[in-house]
Automatic annotation (TrEMBL):
Domain of life of the organism encoding this protein: Bacteria
SUPFAM superfamilies xrefs: Calcium-dependent phosphotriesterase, Carboxypeptidase regulatory domain-like, Cytochrome c
Key words of the record: Heme, Iron, Lyase, Metal-binding
EC number(s) per entry: 4.2.99.-
Domain Cytochrome c stretches: 696-834
Gene Ontology molecular functions: electron transfer activity; heme binding; lyase activity; metal ion binding
Entry keyword Repeat: no
Alphabetized Pfam families for the sequence: CarboxypepD_reg (PF13620), Cytochrom_C (PF00034), Vgb_lyase (PF24684)
Protein name per UniProt: Virginiamycin B lyase
The UniProt record lists the keyword Metal-binding: yes
Protein source organism: Stieleria bergensis
Enzyme class: lyase
Amino acid sequence: MTHTPRDRSQCCQTIATIVISGLSFLLLIQSASPTFALGGAKKSIDGHVVDKEGNGVGGVMVSAIDAEQRKWTSVFTDPNGRFSIEGLRDVPHSLRTRLMGMTDQWLSDVKIGGPAIQIQSEPATGRDLELQRTADSAFSMLAFEHPRDRLNFKMMCSYCHQIGTLGFRTPEEPVDWQTMIRRMDGFGGLYPHTQSTIVQRLMETYKDDAVNRWPAFDPPPPPTGASAAATITMWELDEPLEGSFHDLEIGVDGRVYAVNISKHRMIALDPKTGKQTPYPFPARTYAPHSIETANDGSLWTTMCASGQMVRFDIATEQFEIHSSAEAPKRRGNYPHTLRINPQDPQGLIWYTDAGTNSCFSIHPQTHVVKEYKLLSAGQAVGAGRGEARGVTPYGIDYSPVDGMIWYSKLNANRIGRIDPNAQDGDVKEWNPPFRGPRRLHVAPDGMVWVPGFGSGVFASFNPSTEIWTVYELPNAENQIPYALNVDKEGIVWICGTGNDTINRFDPTSETLTEIRLPTRVSYTREIEFDDEGNVWTSTSGPARHMERGVGAVIKITLPKSLPTEGSIRLRPKTYQGSHEIGNLATAPHVNRPSANAALLAKIDQRTLTKSYLSQPHQQYVDAKMTTLPEPKRSRIGSLWNEFRQSHPQRQRDGEMFVKILDHVATETASPDQPRRFIKKWQHHYFGNAAERLVGRDIEAGKRVFEQATCSRCHAIAGEGSKYGPDLTEVTKRFTGSKLLQQMVNPSTEIHQEFQTQQILLSDGRLLTGLVTEQNDTQLTLIPNLLKPEKSVVVPIAEIEHRQIAKVSSMPVGLLDTFTQQEILDLLAYLQSKHEVQQ
Ligand code: HEC
Ligand code: HEC
């Protein structure tokens, strides 16, 4: 037996479960008990889950898996441990049982309508138990000095993935965490004091054996009653390690359309046949985000990275592309969420743009775009205290009562309302008494329901009384409810984005029912309903963080009448619209020590220059800013933020800003100053600059080669590391833009001798890495090139399947913290070696 150095790799689990039919299980398959021996006609799988003593175990999720359709049908056992899974195709299924606190049991080749099956469950301990920990618990292990810092971290780091899960814990060396976090904090929103300590703290909490020091996972009690009443159908979609679905929509053709934001395609799933059809979005449209059905039955999608609105005609399967901005602008900034009021005779498509302080509508026939300017600082009801500077129009919906358009502003911490009948929209905004209003919805009775992503709450806002009613989710401080939706009956459905659940809230009884989803790391962002009242969602985030390495579309079906037991009663808190809480409701402002306190004190001593005193403040600032390169501008931003946080009483001190500006303008960069994200570079952003390298700074390029860690894997002219190809050789094949493309997108073309291999072992483990040696009996593989000493020897006899991965083992994003100038210098350096050689 060989061991992967990190056998907690997410892929291992994925494959282990895919190859189940080839494995044998420690299961007791007993003959039918008389009560379950039904006639052959019944299309169900029935059984009984028992513990060691033979007592039934309730609340166990039992899933029947139809491998061909990639479809999972899951039910929960009743209090006696009995289950019956109906509506299955007449093909052999695999069966999985799951209950937190118990190990999963797997059975293969289970026949439909066969005798009832008895499955014995075993308590989970040690690593098995640890694997079941939900992200909200893993996140709670990360300590913060102050709730305010926790809020900030949640807002900045958990809107793409859960924190603390197995996949999240994969970086190894400090440098890997560092690279990762710099890439992630591209939006630069972490407080400076958090930025300077976070790598250390993430490592202390999550790296390697840090997990062994956590208190053992304490599994929540098994679901009962209403929380164990659902049938959950799940279809895994798209390619392994690529499938990840931001939003979904039920089309008028009955198919479910889910958008893959990073692969620029949507997958249409026919739930009846399980057939999946991929539709790539047209060329030059990027990042499909949100998808809705327009009143003519076509589907509209916001293309957030390319600033367009795309229409898809279901009947002809044709796409149309429109700018999301008002003419003559040719593209919008970041069209985000869209909604269409089915009662609107014009059928306008309404959407937010997260990069502009505006909402928009586009006419479905004339394609005329209308922009509604939203309010700015200090203009909201209840605004003022702790208002954030970011704006970020976000969720949007229409009121079925009066057709008003409601939206949220994530970072400004507002919700707002547009009157579509007023010329300028007669915009009004309110500040919720919690942090992070994300994707809101208006209920059939006109109440506006809003999830509080940062605070772990959800709330209703009554437009006529302006009263907020706020409910905390259980374990609120570690929850991140991304979206909610309200069904025809007025039931509110809330994403349990941080703990792999969907929550049902009945506003009349104020009870919350938590419904567990079938797989771990199910990051949900949207909830939809079909005509029969079923609830739909999709799972997103990095596919390789997900339990099975691929995302899914999920349908939840509840029985007509729901057991009264199994839900919890929530206690509301109410606030007037003009409340004094501010958006830092759960976190009062404090003076805190600043990492650059000494430097800021020195800067404060500076005298203001004559040229500043002789002109208007803003004019000076604007003129000076335009002369500075981007890294300096962001350094000014972070010093200023730090100053404001350490001197709350001097918050509007414009002169201090100018002193910081002047200081940074003349400061020479210190080499150990942390690098900040600049851009997710693509080679075409450089135009043909990459072809004109004459006169570039070769020495500076050499420094980038070191700083960007290239030298850890590559040799130049035969000197240095050999985990990647010798770059002097490479520059004989690629130069200029082509070479740049290989650097920013290593998977474009993978060097023959350095292909990553995926090796599936007969015990179900999947190893991925570079094969460095091989003979007739064994091969040596390095899973992580940044950690070459951790190689694995694999006996050839244990290899079940072996394939070349389509992904390069060179990390992506290495150059994202470097400027265009630095990258061009690096190119020049690489090519200079080649020229010297010849
Ligand atoms: C805009 C989306 C986004 C945000 C915001 C984000 N991440 Fe990530 N993160 C990703 C993606 C995508 C991956 C998967 C790895 C990859 O694609 O390289 C990832 C992976 C990770 C990993 C695991 C490493 C791995 O190899 O998968 C860590 C650790 C991490 N992120 C930390 C953070 C921290 C800390 C923050 C906040 C500063 C953050 N992330 C914010 C998108 C994001
Ligand atoms: C962790 C190891 C690692 C690091 C760090 C790394 N590379 Fe690579 N690189 C590789 C491997 C392995 C390949 C071969 C696979 C491929 O072609 O994608 C490669 C391929 C390349 C290629 C394409 C070669 C070809 O023939 O297709 C270029 C160019 C390149 N790297 C440049 C760089 C530069 C510049 C940096 C620093 C910004 C860098 N690499 C950092 C491992 C690394």
